Amino acid sequence: MTGAATVLDIRRLCVDYGVGEDAVHAVSDVSLTLRRGEILGLAGESGSGKSTLVFAITRLLRPPAVITGGEAIFFPRDASANKRQNGSFSVSESSDAFIRDDALTGGPTDILRLSPANLRAFRWNELAIVFQSAMNSLNPIMPISAQIMDVMRTHRPQMSATERKQRAAELLRLVGIAPDRLGSYPHELSGGMRQRVGIAIALALNPDIIIMDEPTTALDVVMQREILNEITRLREQFNFAVLFITHDLSLLLEIADRVAIMYAGRIVEEGTQRDLYLHPRHPYSYGLIHSFPSLHGPRQRAIGIPGSPPDLRAVPSGCAFHPRCPLAMPVCTTALPQLLPQPSAEQTRVACHLYAPTATGEPPTADEMRAGYEALAKGSGSL
Amino acid sequence: MKRLLRRLGIYLLAIWAAVTVNFFLPRLAPGNPADAVFFRLAQHGAVSAATRKALEAEFGVDTTDPLWLQYLHYLNNLLHGNLGVSITYFPANVSDVIAQNIGWTLALLTMSVVISFTLGTLIGVFMAWKRGSALDTTLSSVMTFLYSILYPWLALVAVYFLGFKLGWFPFSDGYDSSTTTMGWNLDFILSAAQHAVLPALTLVVSTVAGWMLTMRNSMITTLSEDYILMARAKGLTSRRVMFAYAARNALLPSVTGFAIAIGAVVGGQLLVEIVFSYPGIGFALYQAIQNQDYALADGILLLVIIVTVVMNLIVDLLYTVLDPRTRLERTA
Ligand SMILES: Nc1ncnc2c1ncn2[C@@H]1O[C@H](COP(=O)(O)OP(=O)(O)O)[C@@H](O)[C@H]1O
Ligand SMILES: [Mg+2]
User: Which has the closest alpha carbon to A211: A29, A65, A51?
Assistant: First the structure.
């Protein structure tokens, strides 16, 4: 995926809940780049601002949330590439000829500044969302067929009723649901099927980006696995980019190409899936990865990150993680670490004083981080 | 379906209970109601022996029949629509009196309920959609004020100003019997419509606030649901999000609220008929009570109960239509 063109560039995004002194900074200075066709994972404990970030870049925030700064630049498929894509699609996928009519054909556009009309056209055409709980995100009193087809009725007015219906059946088939379920209501489907319907709706207009906010959190492990496989398969077939959000890092490490880790509204580490898995640099990343028993690697005891995520109304000074960090230094309590590229890995960025160019000692090894966490656990155990 | 059948059973039980209470009440009353009625009837002229017999049967006096037999007679009479003779409208049968009046009541009731519910619900939808706007805050306070007004008071104000002072609308009777004759002619329909304005207005104004506030609140709750967020994310038009997604769901509590309010709605209707001397069963009930016309009062009360129960049934059916979750699960 390296070198693929950027499709979404989030730049220094800041979101507050409320204004003035009491404002909660739920997203602070977040920059992320999503490339065409990749799965970018965003992990963080609950309350770290992941959903707020999603709602900000999709313009779905409700008061008291306010975007206080930043941009979310969408890069439309360029015209020539577009033709090529369309050509190849119409060979393999008959009804796909309808699917792409370019709502945004200009250059890069800031989603946060789209006019209401352009925003409506942008939505679902270019960016679709799969919400956490399909039970709650599907309209309980509307058959799923209507909830799939109203997207087409709004965005593809040239499609006839029959074509809409065909496409809806095709979408259900794509996610492994028998088309005779079209007339079903959400409550007549199992949790896993509802989530598949959510994915089918997201695919309806063949968007460039699908954001998935905890799409498997409400499901049991077996169902999680099936849905993940489904997502991977569909991504290969249709080549959309995914921003996959979860509090479960182990899940991300399985399907994401790149992973970003969020803590208290900020990105603390970002890197390829492989690099992050093998060499987590931020002590928080290390803690997250090793807080569940490893399934593949050498057997190691799971460690625990002591304490709980900060209340965003009172974020610790300096690095927000320092009260829980086994390797905290005096500077961590006063200065905010910058998210900086690492010489050791091309695509990795870390926000930690241990890795700053000005740091005096060597960066910690994995063993040192583990030892630190174990010492912390012992310390609290003897209290 | 099963749910509906069960509800139906409950309604039948309710009607049966009302009928039975209706049978026993006069028998428990002190004194001899049959004598009182007989005396009043005698003032109208000769009373046949058959009438006397019917009266005695109705009140269970001067009869050697055991109670259960009387009860069976009573049920049998009811089933044949035989509710006794009205004193007020002597010698008309109670069932004939009711048949004459019920049309007026149902017409006024349906009209005012439909207008009030539709109007209130629509305004509630828009207020919630524009929550916090000047429109919303102004309407909220006006409607809360209206909500706390009693029907009869509002009816009297309407009679006094719009009817008596300004003379815009007639404020008694159902139509002008001196210039029109009842039937399917334009004059009569216009006259009836004109006479219905004040009573209907009173009913609508005093109930619209309730529907509106219910809908506004339920709409605000609905708007915070995830499926509204998803509908917006899909880029649907605001009209579609507002009606097909939000209002359609928010309507469900309103319909439940409607079922709860039916008693009050019917009660308000009866009161308004009395204030406006509207020729419905409410006004007839009022006259029956004034004339100690037991048979007519009994008959009307039974009818009111049946109307209330039937309205409940309609709301139940409506709810089943509106909410697929109450229908039987479809199997794969
Ligand atoms: N409606 C709200 N009002 C005030 N603060 C909120 C609101 N919603 C969320 N927050 C704050 O934003 C933080 C991030 O929430 P969220 O984005 O939902 O986190 P995540 O999706 O990572 O669990 C929460 O910790 C909370 O403090
Ligand atoms: Mg969340």
Answer: A51
